[in-house]
Amino acid sequence: MNINNIIFPALSLGGLGLLFGLGLGFAAKKFAVQVNPLVPKVRDALPGANCGGCGFAGCDAFAKAVVDGHAPLNGCPVGGGECATAIAAIMGMEVKQTAKTVAYVKCNGTCDKAKEKYVYEGVMDCVSANMLQGKGSKACEYGCLGLGSCIKACQFGAIDIVDGVAVILPEKCVACGMCVSACPKNLIEIVPDAMKVRVACSSFDKGKSVKDNCAVGCISCGLCQKNCPYDAIHVNNGLAKVDYDKCVQCGICVDKCPTDAIVRYQI
Amino acid sequence: MSAYILLFIGAIVVNNVVLSRFLGICPFLGVSKKVETALGMGMAVTFVITLASIISYLVYGLILKPLEITFLYTIAFILVIASLVQLVEMVIQKTSPSLYQALGVYLPLITTNCAVLGVAVINMQKNYNLLQSTINGAGTAIGFTLAIVLLAGLREKIEYNDIPKPFKGYPIVLVTAGLMAIAFLGFAGLIK
């Protein structure tokens, strides 16, 4: 047996490995990129869902933006107050506590209350159904189709279809806003969680056709606007809208609404 | 000259690395959800395969052959590829942060892409010279990019289809990939 058979492979491969190792070590020095040590710390404090709810490409991009001062400390809607406090501690700054917000589906046209134009048997996807003549099977062309495009968009399992209408589960919702952009009807809005009095309708139709299509639609009668002592609800373009800055949750509009289109929201 | 062009086109379509040699299936299935990321992966692979085929040719010809230790080619090539990927990652991070962001995690993933090793081994087995190795490497890599981008485009469409439950996810992707391979079979024999 020739001893060279062992020495040559060991030496050549070892030498090759050493050469590459040295090369890489040299390259690591030469091409070292300065990273602000705060960035990985902020990144660790974030939830890591990479949902994009903050408006940046992901948690890494948001962490970098926070450290560079381009993003607010409380810019992460998923982490909420805790996360903002943690980031503030890392950055050595104070942060204003923000109220929790949640997504809200502005439609209450469940199967028994809203009429259907036809039986839909196509692709089970709101975007597809919305492309059809008449914008889906619901008689009201503003209403929730209940085919669950928002459920597919939600990374947190915070949406359910109950009785043909999407319902947000506030305890799971982090207000990332993915469902807002997924809904082809633009039905979903981010609202303050504490504001439970909400308008559960999005129809801009005239009162009569609303009434024909749905039992709980806003018929723009204006009773809520007239009876609100705080000037916190207004009817514009055939739809009531609550001004959450002024609303004190008295619930007078809920009682006055003849079609129950304004609700005190609870799960 | 025409022999080189034939080699190049042959490597892209006729002997497509994914669809007729069945190498590099892992990233082909794993990173083909979106056209954008598939393109990023394809670009990174193109870069690495082309460089790796040059360097592995040099390592084989200048080190392994003279020392008569060619049986070590697998481990030597893997060494080359792994260090090369590391180096490429560092250089890109320094010189082009935007490209680095776009390629993201796919760069390190290439280390374990068997297509890269496959090309180096094919170059060696067919006794290609340096220029042929480079052309074969680049062609193979472009073939990989072509295949992965095509599959990603198909998968984006499939997303919206009503797929029977047992076929959801990877089964339908494998069926799609199989049909693509059959389509590419049409090129077989085009170039001897």
From TrEMBL, chain B:
Annotated EC: 7.-.-.-
GO cellular component labels: endomembrane system; plasma membrane
Key words of the record: Cell membrane, Electron transport, Membrane, Translocase, Transmembrane, Transmembrane helix, Transport
GO BP field: electron transport chain
Location of the protein in the cell: Cell membrane; Endomembrane system
Pfam families xrefs: Rnf-Nqr (PF02508)
Membrane-traversing stretches: 6-31, 38-63, 69-88, 100-122, 134-152, 172-191
Domain of life: Bacteria
Lipid bilayer topology: Multi-pass membrane protein
Oligomeric form and interacting partners: The complex is composed of six subunits: RnfA, RnfB, RnfC, RnfD, RnfE and RnfG.
PANTHER family referenced in this protein's UniProt entry, alphabetically: INTEGRAL MEMBRANE PROTEIN OF SOXR-REDUCING COMPLEX, ION-TRANSLOCATING OXIDOREDUCTASE COMPLEX SUBUNIT A
Family per similarity comment: Belongs to the NqrDE/RnfAE family.
Main function: Part of a membrane-bound complex that couples electron transfer with translocation of ions across the membrane.
Protein name: Ion-translocating oxidoreductase complex subunit A
Taxonomic source organism: Anaerotalea alkaliphila
